[in-house]
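Hi P.,

Sorry for the delay on this. The queue was packed all week, but I finally got your sequence through. Input first:
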Amino acid sequence: MNQQVILRPAEPADVAEMAAVQVAARDAAPMPASVHPQADIADFLRSRLTADEAWVAELSGEVAAYIRFTCMWLDDLYVHPRAQGQGIGGALLDLAMAQRPDRLGLYVFETNTPAQRFYRSRGFVVTERSDGSANEERVPDLRMEWRNVHGH
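Then the structure:
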């Protein structure tokens, strides 16, 4: 990472920037655009801040990326396109894996091969393929899981 990145728990004041990061990252990735407008994404994220664990990566005082996860699922990991390739996504994923040291699962769109490569490089494996009928975008996706085989 070239510039200093600060990882910290997400706060309600971060929600608008988090939503903007998600929209920009999705637009730049080989995946379908969100079916929700940015304001609705922000409202949803705000509603999840107390239930889920959410962290932001701050770069030069701005939210450059965020991660949101539950006890078993990695729901969001988005890095703004201008901040990609600096290790920020890896740092956030390492944090989540340290917080959930036994296992973590996620879904990734079949078209999003860069994300699949990223997760595979971190030890995630494909455990299921779907036709997309269960996701909002109706696009085929993969379930990937990481399990700590080394124990504690």
